[in-house]
Amino acid sequence: MPIQVAYLGPEGTYAEEAAYTLARLEKLDNPKFVPCVGLHSVIKHAAKKLCDAAVVPIENSVEGGVTATLDALWNSPDLYIRRALILPIRHCLLGNSSINEISEVLSHPQALAQCNGWLNEHLPNVLQLPTNSTAEAVRMVKDSKFRAAIASKSTNNLKQLKELAYPINDVAGNRTRFVLVQREEIKQIGNKASLAFSLRANQPGALLKALSYIADLGLNMSRIESRPSKRELGEYVFFVDLELSNSIDEAHLKLIKVLKPLCEHLVHFGAYPSSEIEGN
C-alpha cells in the first residue's frame, strides 16, 4: 500500500513542494499525496489516521510561527515530527491582464503579509482578499481580468496565469519551515527537537525555572514562542525548539524528565533531522 501524505492543497502550493521534497528525503516508498483544505484538516488527517503522515508549515522567517499549525499540534499530542525542511519562499504576482488593471489581490494571509510592503508601494489601492491557500487564489483568479494572485512560480501556476511581477516578497531571505508529522514514534535522532508545555503555576519565576533547566543541561534553545491556552486570559502554552547533535542526545531526554513536574501538560514532538534547500 502506498504511504499517504496529507498537505495544504490544492496543487501548486508551497506545501506541495515541501511535501514532495520531504517524502524524497525520507525515502518514502511510493507516496500518495492528499491535498486538504485548511491546516487543521491536514493535521487531522494524520491524527485520525486518515493518512499515514502530514506536511504543515510551522514557522516563517518574516511572520513567525504559523499559529494554526501550533494550535493544531498542541491539540494532537500523539503526533511526532519525523523531519523538518526549510524552504525558500519567492512570491510571484500572477494574473490575466496588465498590472495596471488589477483591483483585487488574493492569497493566503501569510503570503499577503509577506508582500505587504510591495503591495503598498506598487498597488496601494487594491483590495487584499485572504484565501485558504496560494493555489486556491490562483484558481479564483483564473477567469478574472481585475484580480491577481500571489503564489509560487510553479509550473502548475504558470500554466493557468501569466507572471506580472517576481519576486514580490518584502524580505529576500523569506523562508518557511515545514515539518513532516506522523502518529508513530520514531528513533529520537536528529539535529533538532521540539516540545510544548503549559506550567502548573502562573507565578513569578515559573517560566524562568523551566528555561534554566535547558541552560543547565547545556542545550541551545533556537526558538521559543507562546500561544494562549484558550482557557483563560494570561494562561499560555510555550513551544520550544532545541539544537541537538546528530545522535541520541541524553541531555535532551533528561530535559523531558525534569520538566514534567513543572508542567500541567507537556507534549514531546521528538528529535528529528532538519535540512534546508536553496531557492531559485
Question: Can you summarize this structure?
Answer:
By secondary structure, the chain is of the alpha/beta class. It is built from 9 helices and 16 strands.
Q: Could you explain how this protein is built, in words?
A:
This protein is of the alpha/beta class and 280 residues long. The chain folds into 3 domains: 4-88 and 174-182, D-Maltodextrin-Binding Protein, domain 2, CATH 3.40.190; 92-165, D-Maltodextrin-Binding Protein, domain 2 (3-Layer(aba) Sandwich); 192-276, Alpha-Beta Plaits, CATH 3.30.70.260. Helices cover 28% and strands 34% of the residues. It has 9 helices and 16 strands. The strands form 3 sheets. Strands 1, 2, 3, 4, 5, 11 and 16 form a 7-stranded mixed sheet that branches. Strands 8-7-9-6-10 form a 5-stranded mixed sheet. Helix 1 links the parallel strand 1 (4-8) and strand 2. Helix 2 runs parallel beside helix 3. The radius of gyration is 20 Å and the shape is globular.
Question: What are the SSEs and their pairings?
Answer:
Layout lengths: L3 E5 L5 H12 L6 E5 L2 H9 L5 E8 L3 E2 L1 H8 L5 E9 L3 E4 L8 E4 L1 H6 L1 H7 L4 E4 L3 H8 L5 E5 L3 H6 L1 E4 L9 E8 L9 E8 L6 H11 L3 E9 L7 E8 L6 H10 L3 E10 L1 E3 L4
